[in-house]
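DM from R.C. (forwarded with permission)

"hey, sorry to bug you on a friday — could you get me a structure for this? deadline for the figure draft is monday and I only need the backbone to look sensible"
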Amino acid sequence: MFHDKLKPKTQTGGELLSSPNNLTAGTSGESGDRAYWDARQAALGISTNGEALLPDEIVFCERLRKQYPDQSLDTVLEWLKQGQIGERGVRDAEYDFVWMAYDGQKWELKSSITQRYESIKQRLKDDLAKGKTRFIIDLGVGELTDELRRQLSTYASKRSISGMAVLSNDGATLTFIA
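My reply, with the result:
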């Protein structure tokens, strides 16, 4: 389940009626409406190079802003235009953003709906095979436990990961692993 404290919508049973991963759900003005996410994206105040960000990317930017309270978000990161559709019908590998406020390098966002090591490792696997080496993992409202930190550190040291950071506690904590 994706946690978005800004606009939760529930149905019977308490599950999310619409989530950032399901833009077709809901009615006008609800979190499943594209116009709703477009408005939140516009409020970020960053250049997205013409890209319509996915809801989890928008929420990540909102959380990351908490780490830089005295800076405009457009001085913190720049979203990259995604690659073209290649011969196999797949987008060319590209990182998500340049983290200007940290190291000026390209980084890949991995939003995680769970704090389980195996799930996160699976999310990284394909991108590592494509040659990506810098990742920020957004745990949402979840907490980075000592065990998960140790596991990710070991994983990063055994792979060609040149940068790994974890954003947790709804953006209140940013931890650098590698």
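R.C.: lifesaver. Residues 117-129 form the longest helix (13 residues).
me: no worries. The helical segments are 34-44, 55-64, 117-129, 146-158.
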